[in-house]
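Honest question from a wet-lab person: if I give you the sequences of every part of a complex, can you actually get the arrangement of the whole thing, not just the pieces? Trying it with mine:
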Amino acid sequence: MSSAEQKNQTIIFKNKPAILAGYSIVGPYEGEGRFGTCFDYVMKHDRFNEISYERAERKMLEHAIFGAMDKAHINNPDLDAILAGDLLNQIITSSFAARCLDACYLGVFGACSAMSLSLILGATLIDGGYMNTVACATASHFSTAERQFRFPLELGNQRIPTSQWTVTAAACSILGKNEKKSENSEKKGKEKDELNKIPYLTCATIGKVVDYGISDVNNMGAAMAPSAASTLLAHFRGTKTKPSDYDIIATGDLGKLGARILRTLLENEGIELGAEFFDCGEEIFNLSKLKGTMGGSGPGCSAAVLNSYILSQLQKGEAKRVLFVATGALLSPTSSQQGHSIPSITHAVEIRVD
Amino acid sequence: MSSAEQKNQTIIFKNKPAILAGYSIVGPYEGEGRFGTCFDYVMKHDRFNEISYERAERKMLEHAIFGAMDKAHINNPDLDAILAGDLLNQIITSSFAARCLDACYLGVFGACSAMSLSLILGATLIDGGYMNTVACATASHFSTAERQFRFPLELGNQRIPTSQWTVTAAACSILGKNEKKSENSEKKGKEKDELNKIPYLTCATIGKVVDYGISDVNNMGAAMAPSAASTLLAHFRGTKTKPSDYDIIATGDLGKLGARILRTLLENEGIELGAEFFDCGEEIFNLSKLKGTMGGSGPGCSAAVLNSYILSQLQKGEAKRVLFVATGALLSPTSSQQGHSIPSITHAVEIRVD
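Yes, you can. This is the full assembly:
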């Protein structure tokens, strides 16, 4: 990872697009975890009154998009575009959810890194002056992922200790122009809301595909950790920062084992992750209750944590500088069945408040 | 489609990113069609000396990416990013191909609209000043698509008359900064190359998801035509142009039937497509030889035609203004099996030479 010629992977957002609002909806297990009280909506049942889990996942995503738009006071005609992606084949959750919006649709695929991928591309559309308001969204569902990637649920297969549990969650961030600076001075006196700071995106580090040859589909954390390390190193190098410069560094769904591997990989490069670091996958479930797993995975995992706990920490000013680092394993059942290893990718986004 | 409030779906590229080079590789059937002599490489056998069709598809994409980089005189260290997507589950062709590049990777999914989707996002990255050189690429393969979306090849199923034939092709465009204006005057005298004009992107119209309720997976042309009509109307409205302002309007893989439906839909809105219009799907095969199909489909279809025939027409100055309109059907086997209709999307990119 530390070679002679190192490419700049970091892009700077000159106009610092704002996160106008975020919304998260999760399943019952996720509601019992560390961030349970932070989510906007905890479903009582993960079928969400639909006839299939695929329909439930789509309804969750629609719910998250409209929830975020509502919080940001954005109506359908004011939304320029939606950027979304998910885990299902041909990202049907995103495409079908986008159908109910009168907005341009840009589909993305980064597996569990979908949230940071859509944020990066959405931010460039606003920062570059092409659009005014965009939604960045993603979703995942344990029961749709399980039957697509692994086994029919009805089999009741035992889980391998290193495996992760796909998070049932959808989340959406609304990005808009950063008009804070001009308005801030007048507004300051009037605002009574506890959540009065507007987070904005300052820069992003786009990942390269990294593959250390891990081919065990029940050990995604190990497959993705080298990619997380690669992007974090590129980010620290590109921005001349170190972990302690951030109040929160949140990786997405490495799980307990993957997070430990990431710490070790960075230590080998002389970088120590401190108390500012946590992994959304490791933290989202109450692992003493949900046994036999390393934690959560799926794009909904880090997306839901970003659009609940992390965003509220920023809005309250309790965190001023956050590095959101979603990770993705770019495999498919076909690639695994044909004996290939698991290429991974990690995209990092820096979010700040004044 | 013609309602009172109509959103602006068109974005303008102020700095007019240049298409530095394009490369296309196709299978034997595609080599026998109208554009056969335009492609950079026609494979003798569609397995491309690999042990699986999935591997062949990936190798084709790698071949196209490196081919385009070579034509543009871009080395691996000079390529900032690759934006790519394909039809396979979890876009494994793109992700595995990106693994062999030392460049940032942004995965996109727009089904058969992947080429224009990656061009639009790639162009904003360059136009907005975030990057200098990006590759935009896609691929599809008849034999991987057939077994993933339809039936095992070994069954030898009969084809339904309205069905389309997935094109075996990969293509890549290299986008870079438009430095023509400054250099042009000096260079003009020196250039002897027949292909001496550098095409550039002026604007793009991003599609919304359109669904007219077609659920017949063997009639993609009918499913996608309303989406093509929607984006074309938005483009003509947003840019105050009409079809005859363009030398080429090339839609991507509507096929013979879909192209006819598109003409009718636009006629109903008072817009006549003339001789400048053709559909890449209708034209890519020699339909008198490849019987029982409406033409080609798959993201490789329009991508290969763009990066061969269309690009060379621009480079020679025989076409000065082109509208490239790739269309995508956003279904998956799961969504179809669960009885859903086929949402579609179309993204249009305007390419010009001076």
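Two things worth pointing out. Chain B touches chain A through 59 residues (CB under 8 Å). Confidence is low (pLDDT under 50) at residues 181-192 of chain B.
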